[in-house]
Amino acid sequence: MKKTTINKVSTLGVVAAIFTLVLFSNPLKSLEQVGATYGYGYGYGYGSSPNSSKFQVANDPRVKTGDEIYQTDTSKDNKPSGNDNNGKTPSTNVENEDSNRVNVTLDNGNKFSHKKLDCEFLTNTSNLNFGDVRADSKYYGDILELKNTGITVGTTPNTFEPGRYITKSELLGMALKLNCIDIKSTNIDLTSSKIKAWQLNVMRAGYENKVVDKIDFSVNENITKYEAYNILLKGGEIETPKTDVVEAMKYIGAVDEKEQVYSNSNLKREEAAEVLANVLKIYQMKK
Q1: Sequence-distant (≥ 6) Cβ neighbours of residue 165 within 8 angstroms
Q2: Alpha-carbon distances, residue 61 vs 127, 191, 276 (angstroms)
Q3: Angle at which helices 269-284 and 140-149 pack, to 10 degrees?
Q4: Distance from first CA to last CA of the chain, Å, rounded?
Q5: Residue 257 located in a structural domain
Q6: Nearest to 171 by CA among 274, 35, 281
Q7: How many other C-beta atoms lie within 10 A of the C-beta of residue 267?
Q8: Which of 67, 140, 162, 252 has the fewest CB atoms found within 10 Å of its own CB?
Q9: Which domain holds residue 268?
Q10: Is residue 112 a contact partner of residue 172, using CB atoms and an 8 Å limit?
């Protein structure tokens, strides 16, 4: 099977720039002093919410420890929330001969693979209530799934801001957590910078895990669909027969195959939630 060819996410900064910025900042502080909050802080682009209280990182109760990967509740329908995605729900999802890979076969016959996932750091936040998400929204189920899984970032604990466009750092943060890439804290003080400590953590984790190619990539800019899909495919090391990013996302069932996708258009947070939840469903399928 040919690997999906993933074009690089466009970036404006360079690794040297972010660390040059740090050298002229105030003396080092701990991340707690900087103000680490749930969702890796706030200031997540324009029109964002105030700081929220701190949350502890705990084990995700959905995930078993050791070498086991995402488990699913077999009593529930495994179709993506809010959109049946034309029935492109995986029918099988089994480890292949490479113990670090998982093969997936959809009901329509599409076959692909992704890296083996083992999360022990996610926080179940099902106790939170997003007061700004309407229960009759087509994205309600998807947003709820992300909340319960503990991979939402970019707002206060009880808000999601569904109608706001998602920024590059927000999407990257969610994609990293979705793909079991831990976002470790830093002791660098960026209080005099437009870049928040949580954003540096996200950028560093993305760079170190080869999901993005630069540490500074205009964190507060709204992300395009092409960039978002690129990050999700690279984060999950998803391999398909498709060489185009958009076609690859349609092939795996993360995006409706009938949708006309404008690659340079932006994603609202609720729209990003739908795509993220569809990828999560693939990872959660019964083995």
Answers
A1: 45, 222, 266, 267, 268, 269
A2: 13, 34, 19
A3: 60
A4: 21
A5: yes
A6: 274
A7: 22
A8: 67
A9: 55-185+219-284
A10: no
Whole-structure pTM value = 0.66
- 266 DSSP assignment: B
What's the rounded Cα separation, in Å, for the pair 206 and 212?
Answer: 5
Instruction: For 19-52, give the DSSP string.
Output: HHHHHTSSSP--HHHHT--TTT-S--STT-PPP-
Question: What tokens were used for 10?
Answer: 């466009």
Residue 3 lies in a domain: no
Cα-flanking dihedrals φ and ψ of residue 272, to 5°?
A: -65, -35
Burial class (CB in 10 A: 0-12, 13-18, 19+), 199: buried
| DSSP for residue 86 | G
Q: Is 135 helix (H, G, I), strand (E, B) or coil?
A: coil
With a cut of 70, say whether residue 117 has pLDDT above it: yes
Indicate whether 29 belongs to any domain: no
Give a yes or no: residue 30 inside a domain: no
Sheet holding 101-106, edge to edge: 90-95, 101-106, 111-115
Span 18-50, pLDDT tens digits: 434 443 443 333 333 333 333 333 222 223 322
